[in-house]
Each structure stands twice: as structure tokens, then as C-alpha cells.
Specification:
The protein has 191 residues and is of the alpha+beta class. It has helices at residues 43-48, 54-71, 108-115, 117-141, 161-190, and strands at residues 15-21, 24-29, 41-42, 83-89, 92-97.
């Protein structure tokens, strides 16, 4: 579909066909290689291993967001595992989507995607926000600490060591704590 529309594929691996695997249907995509011919790794891998700094991550994400909006491409299954971080030359990267484009099901919303510029713009923005929430959760899983956050929030308050550790714990376990609180509320309603 994107080929027919003459879309720019600079941030998308070409998809060829479905194949049947022992895990169900799968898609065959171009293999994404770095400049040195090694396979590109997922963006989530780069985040977890801290292989690129937060400033570079933000630039790469901004570039991908601009690309998706300009080309009007819907990134629906927006996980950082569906994005590879390709090293195009030593120390220079770009993000390449390998899966999760288009719509999950064919129906009215899919028809809107194909026929309404307004809907596609709305959906691209909505899905990008969802992706950024997922990305932020990936960041929380890494070994982030309060001092590293100075790069993206230089105006944050100065804290002593114990206060920093408390903030780091709250950030890393925020999602887990919310999930536990919601589970407690559900149990209360059942009683």
C-alpha cells in the first residue's frame, strides 16, 4: 500500500510477504544492517544498555515523529522493539520501523485511515503519544538515576543522596505501584 502511494521508506524496512511459522503468521522484512554490516539492534536494547545518551534518543525520536507525520504513516503497534536503531556511520544513528504499521483490523476505522486526512493526522498523533508513554516506561526500567536526569531537566531540585534514592525508587516502581493500588481497589469492590 505504501509503495503505491510513493511513500518515502527512509525509516521503514521494506515488507515483502506473510509466511507461516511455528509461532503463527509472520512477515518478511528487509534485514536492517549497520554501516559495518552488523545487524541493527532494537531501540529498546539501546535504551536498556544506555548505548546512546538521552539527547541523541530525543533527536532520533523527533526525527521519526516528523517523518511519520510528513509521510502520513500510521505506526499502530508502537513498541520500541518494533524499531531498530541503525548506525548509519560511526556514532550516527537513525530509527527504522520493522513492524506495526497500518491498522490492526480491516473495518470502518481502516476505511477512515485510507480516506480521511483529518483522521490519519489525529491517529498518528494519538499513537505517537502512546508510543512516548511506552518509551518513558522503557526509560524507567533502565538504570536511570537522578543525576542523569539533569540533562533533560536542569531545573530539578538539588537533593541529598537519600532523597535521590527515594525519587529513583518512586519513578522506577510508579507503574507497579499503580497496578497494585488498582488491584486493591478491585478487591474492595468485590467484597
Amino acid at each position: 500500500y505504501l509503495k503505491k502511494l510513493n511513500k518515502n521508506f527512509s525509516h521503514i524496512a521494506l515488507c515483502y510477504e506473510y509466511v507461516n511459522t511455528n509461532l503463527g503468521d509472520g512477515l518478511i522484512f528487509d534485514r536492517v544492517l549497520n554501516y559495518d554490516k552488523t545487524p541493527a539492534k532494537s531501540f529498546r536494547y539501546f535504551i536498556a544498555k544506555k548505548l546512546i545518551n538521552l539527547d541523541t534518543q530525543k533527536k532520533l525520536l523527533d526525527e521519526l515523529n516528523r517523518y511519520l507525520k510528513k509521510e502520513e504513516i500510521l505506526f499502530i503497534d508502537n513498541s520500541s522493539t518494533n524499531i531498530l536503531c541503525q548506525e548509519v556511520e560511526k556514532g550516527k544513528y537513525k530509527l527504522v520501523i520493522i513492524d506495526g504499521l497500518g491498522a490492526k483490523r480491516v473495518g470502518f476505522k481502516f476505511w477512515l485511515y485510507l480516506n480521511s486526512k483529518l483522521y490519519i493526522k489525529y491517529k498518528i498523533i494519538k499513537q505517537w503519544r502512546k508510543f512516548i508513554r511506552s518509551y518513558n516506561n522503557d526509560l524507567k526500567r533502565t538504570e536511570l538515576n537522578y543525576d542523569i536526569l539533569e540533562k533533560i531537566d536542569p531545573d530539578r531540585p538539588k537533593l541529598d543522596k537519600q532523597e535521590k534514592e527515594e525519587v529513583e525508587i518512586q519513578i522506577k516502581y510508579e507503574g507497579y505501584i499503580k497496578m497494585q493500588e488498582a488491584q486493591v481497589e478491585r478487591f474492595k469492590k468485590l467484597e
